[in-house]
Amino acid sequence: MNDFSDRMRRILLEERAKLTGNLLLEHQQFDEMIHQHEIGDSIDEVSTTIDKNLLERLGANIFMSVQRIDVALARMENGTYGVCVKCGKMIDKARLEALPEASMCIDCQKSVTQQQR
């Protein structure tokens, strides 16, 4: 592996550790809110429900980010990291430095984003 790949692997692993730590913290906060909900009044119930929904969405976003990182790490292992999954061209290093888990070049990502609108 070259220096760039080693650096990207370290960045991805550090980000994964940070995200999984955040996910565990949110899970603990969720458990605390559920406990408070059991002893709270109706105003607290509404607030707890809102907080619960927010935490669930945040947790889902973090989980999806961890999955993207895991895919990038797997692509490193099989030698396809940095290759666009859509067009097969190399992803610019600047894009990978900004978004290490990127699986598409900027042009393909723009195309996919426009199609989703």
TrEMBL record:
The answer to keyword Thylakoid applying to this record is no
Q: Which GO terms describe its molecular function?
A: zinc ion binding
Q: Which Pfam families match?
A: zf-dskA_traR
Enumerate the residue ranges forming zinc fingers (dksA C4-type).
Answer: 84-108
Swiss-Prot/TrEMBL keywords: Metal-binding, Zinc, Zinc-finger
Q: Which residues form the Zinc finger DksA/TraR C4-type domain?
A: 79-112
Specify the domain of life of the species encoding this protein.
Bacteria
SUPFAM superfamilies from the entry? DnaK suppressor protein DksA, alpha-hairpin domain (SSF109635), Glucocorticoid receptor-like (DNA-binding domain) (SSF57716)
What is the protein's given name?
A: TraR/DksA family transcriptional regulator
